[in-house]
């Protein structure tokens, strides 16, 4: 067994290094210029539809046909015209079930209300009009055709979301199949980079899919350590849910009716992954398998009876789950989720209109938030009345104007280039992204203010967004201004499915002080990945250390901040720095920077301590409690041995506690020399764990003054070099 583990993790280390050399081919992406756009106007009173379009083609009339959905097989002829407009006086009763094809010569233009509202990157499927295999065939064709499955997809700017309308009359979206989701006979949906599957029903069972598969592209499918950026929510999976993924992957609000595994069964070597996150999910028949996963966070899931292990190597946290595994070194079942609000989602209501369901806050929750017949507690908002639907090409001007007008923002899949931050300045305002929508500091040099600034207001929700930076900035995300002190305990701020990425794509030097700073009190974070990229399309090593500069992944200044599923990797100083009182983190994953050039340039506490702790609770903090903490050494370096003295550092105080800490080494000659505060042992001799540290015998870190961002620090260029 020991030899097998050595073999597995030697291969794991090798593939981590290989992963750092992956390049993307962004030049293959060409935007469709001068795309023909039609217009559709629905008159509810007259119940008619007026179409218009610009001239195209060379001769003859425009021929108009209609069907109930975009991919329906039975478009019927309505007529033809030489004009640039056409009126349908007998549309289908549901206004969204009118898809028109305007054809002239060899050019066909599809016009629909859904496309007009949501743009070109959201794909809708309707079982009422389409065959069961139609959606699967289209999604899989995109997976292959635009590189969403391999290394060329990892840093693409393409974004897409696939939305399924509710089943009718007992039908499903399962075209049939057998065997593992990875096999050709399973007829699985293969979901690739920056892709999202969403059900448009009220409860997961309203949309039944066959099987879903995420195909790792490393080691012939055996290595999922770079299988990032994809999500699925509000659907039922009838056969195999093979969700073989790592960071920035979210599965929420699901019913899984058959086999479920988070490991790859393809390739001829042992599998490994570095995932992952699942929440609010009911497994109805079999207990899933996480074997080969480095770590995983599972929240408010219901499993079939049993308490045996379900896999995982180092740090598996099960919170608010029914029938979780038994506690052991790697598994940490936590009885309840103390405070949570589930992520809002898009659905179609009984009146046929698009709505957004905003779940209510819940305390001390166990199990899922929904039932087979009930959405759960929350509020319903009308999308067209209460929201601004942003589409790729919208800028900070349109988005901020909509926020000022009192609208929430639904980001359709896209790559949003900002010249100024999105400014969330009203109580209960919501930013909701679909399809891993990304907001990016580009292309102007003028934006040094960050991606999102949220004011210190009750009830703000920011969900489903990736923040990218092609320019230097103080923050990528700031929650509450400096000095924020309002009490939001009655209506906390929610941040969910958030990724902040530094580097990986841009060729010029950028400097960022911190990816996210939480200044507000009473903030709940539900799944973060802060990632200073360890690989990308640009050269790595010492070049990356100087080019992609960022000190901290997360700084928490506010009090009573609760985080679930916190991933933070490769930052150049303390990756998480906690200054607020009564903070809580349930699950933490970390790898230190691969590329620190030498020990002298990577030492903390005025040069007295080797490296920087991954998770640092400042000596001034009196009360803190976190559980399920992993930090893994990958010091591949630049020829010199670089070490880190402590995986974690906290003050020796009776009310400051860290539980279930784990450190180990995956690659490189350097080590994490202690688990916490100088105790626990070094990764030089294998995996080290500390079950609980609170006011223990360890050495308290030196007192420090931290260089935090301030009003005076932005928008000036941030100097982070020693």
Q: How many distinct helices? A: 6
Strand coverage percent: 35-45%
Structure classification: mainly beta
How much is the radius of gyration in Å?
25 Å
Quaternary status:
single chain
Provide mean pLDDT, rounded. 91
Identify low-pLDDT runs: 1-34, 715-722
Query: Looking at the structure, what is the overall shape?
Result: globular
Short note summarizing the structure:
With 722 residues, the protein is mainly beta.
Describe it for me?
- With 722 residues, this protein is mainly beta.
- Helices cover 8% and strands 37% of the residues.
- The strands form nine sheets. Strands 28, 29, 30, 32, 34, 36, 38, 40, 42, 46, 48 and 50 form a twelve-stranded mixed sheet that branches.
Brief descriptors of the model:
722 residues; mainly beta; 12-stranded mixed beta sheet; 11-stranded parallel beta sheet; 8% helix; 37% strand; disordered C terminus
Detail the topology: elements first, then pairings:
Layout: H1 2-19, E1 39-43, E2 48-52, E3 62-67, E4 76-81, E5 85-88, E6 99-104, E7 107-111, H2 113-118, E8 122-125, H3 132-145, E9 160-164, E10 189-190, E11 195-199, E12 208-209, E13 212-213, E14 230-233, E15 236-237, E16 241-242, E17 249-256, E18 260-261, E19 277-283, E20 295-299, E21 315-319, E22 331-334, E23 337-340, E24 345-348, E25 354-359, E26 362-365, E27 378-382, H4 383-386, E28 387-390, H5 396-404, E29 408-411, E30 415-418, E31 422-424, E32 430-441, E33 452-454, E34 461-469, E35 473-479, E36 493-502, E37 510-518, E38 523-532, H6 542-547, E39 548-556, E40 562-569, E41 576-578, E42 583-591, E43 603-604, E44 609-610, E45 615-617, E46 624-634, E47 644-649, E48 656-667, E49 672-676, E50 688-693
Parallel strand pairs: 8-9, 9-11, 10-13, 11-14, 12-15, 13-16, 14-17, 15-17, 16-18, 17-19, 19-20, 20-21, 21-22, 28-29, 29-32, 30-32, 31-33, 32-34, 33-35, 34-36, 35-37, 36-38, 37-39, 38-40, 39-41, 40-42, 41-45, 42-46, 45-47, 46-48, 47-49
Antiparallel strand pairs: 1-2, 2-5, 3-4, 3-6, 6-7, 23-26, 24-25, 25-27, 43-44, 48-50
């Amino acid at each position: 067994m020991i030899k097998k583990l050595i073999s597995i993790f030697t291969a794991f280390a090798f593939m981590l290094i290989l992963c750092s050399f992956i390049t993307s081919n962004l030049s293959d992406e060409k935007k469709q210029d001068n795309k023909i756009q039609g217009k559709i106007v629905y008159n509810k009173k007259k119940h008619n539809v007026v179409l218009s379009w610009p001239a195209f083609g060379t001769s003859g009339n425009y021929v108009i046909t209609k069907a109930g959905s975009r991919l329906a097989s039975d478009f019927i002829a309505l007529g033809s015209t030489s004009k640039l407009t056409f009126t349908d006086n007998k549309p289908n009763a549901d206004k969204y079930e009118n898809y028109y094809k305007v054809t002239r010569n060899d050019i066909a233009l599809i016009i629909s209300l859904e496309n007009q509202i949501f743009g070109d990157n959201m794909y809708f499927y309707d079982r009422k009009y389409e065959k069961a295999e139609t959606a699967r065939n289209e999604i899989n064709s995109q997976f292959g055709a635009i590189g969403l499955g391999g290394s060329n997809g990892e840093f693409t700017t393409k974004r897409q979301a696939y939305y399924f309308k509710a089943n009718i009359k007992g039908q499903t979206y399962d075209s049939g199949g057998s065997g593992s989701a990875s096999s050709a006979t399973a007829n699985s949906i293969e979901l690739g980079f920056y892709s999202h599957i969403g059900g448009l029903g009220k409860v997961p069972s309203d949309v039944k899919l066959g099987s879903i598969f995420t195909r790792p592209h490393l080691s012939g499918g055996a290595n999922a350590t770079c299988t990032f950026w994809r999500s699925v929510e509000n659907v039922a999976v009838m056969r195999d849910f093979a969700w073989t993924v790592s960071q920035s992957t979210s599965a929420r609000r699901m019913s899984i009716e058959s086999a479920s595994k988070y490991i790859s069964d393809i390739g001829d070597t042992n599998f490994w992954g570095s995932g992952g996150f699942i929440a609010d999910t009911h497994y109805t028949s079999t207990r899933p398998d996480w074997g080969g996963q480095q770590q995983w966070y599972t929240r408010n899931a219901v499993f079939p009876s049993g308490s045996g292990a379900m896999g995982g190597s180092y740090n598996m946290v099960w919170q608010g789950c029914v029938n979780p595994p038994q506690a052991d070194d790697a598994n940490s079942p936590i009885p309840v989720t103390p405070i949570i609000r589930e992520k809002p989602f898009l659905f179609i209501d009984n009146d046929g209109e698009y709505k957004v369901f905003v779940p209510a806050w819940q305390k001390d929750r166990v199990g899922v938030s929904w039932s087979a017949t009930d959405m759960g507690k929350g509020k319903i908002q009308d999308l067209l009345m209460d929201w601004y639907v942003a589409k790729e090409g919208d800028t900070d001007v349109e988005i901020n104007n909509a926020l000022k007008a009192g609208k929430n923002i639904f980001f359709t899949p896209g790559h949003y280039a900002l010249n100024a931050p999105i400014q969330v300045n009203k109580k209960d305002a919501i930013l909701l992204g679909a399809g891993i929508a990304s907001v990016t500091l580009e292309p102007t040099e003028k934006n040094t203010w960050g991606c999102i600034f949220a004011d210190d207001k009750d009830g703000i929700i920011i969900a489903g967004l990736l923040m990218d930076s092609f320019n230097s900035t103080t923050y990528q995300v700031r929650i509450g201004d400096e000095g924020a002190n309002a009490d939001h305990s009655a209506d906390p701020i929610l941040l969910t499915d958030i990724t902040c990425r530094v580097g990986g794509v841009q060729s010029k030097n950028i400097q960022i002080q911190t990816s996210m700073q939480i200044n507000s009190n009473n903030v709940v974070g539900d799944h973060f990945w802060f990632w200073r990229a360890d690989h990308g399309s640009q050269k790595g090593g010492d070049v990356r250390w100087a080019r992609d500069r960022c000190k901290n992944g997360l700084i928490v200044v506010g009090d009573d901040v609760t985080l679930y599923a916190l991933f933070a990797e490769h930052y150049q100083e303390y990756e998480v720095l906690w200054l607020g009182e009564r903070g809580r983190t349930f699950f933490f994953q970390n790898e230190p920077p691969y590329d620190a050039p030498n020990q002298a340039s990577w030492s903390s506490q005025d040069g007295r301590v080797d490296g920087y702790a991954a998770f640092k609770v400042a000596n001034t903090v009196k009360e803190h409690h976190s559980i399920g903490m992993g930090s893994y050494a990958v010091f591949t370096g630049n020829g010199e041995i670089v070490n880190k003295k402590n995986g974690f550092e906290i003050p020796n105080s009776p009310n400051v506690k860290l539980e279930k800490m784990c450190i180990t080494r995956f690659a490189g000659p350097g080590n994490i020399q202690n688990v916490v505060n100088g105790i626990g042992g070094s990764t030089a001799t294998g995996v080290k764990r500390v079950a609980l540290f609170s006011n223990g015998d360890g050495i308290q870190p030196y007192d420090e003054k931290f260089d935090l961002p301030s009003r005076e620090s932005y928008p000036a260029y941030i100097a982070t070099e020693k």
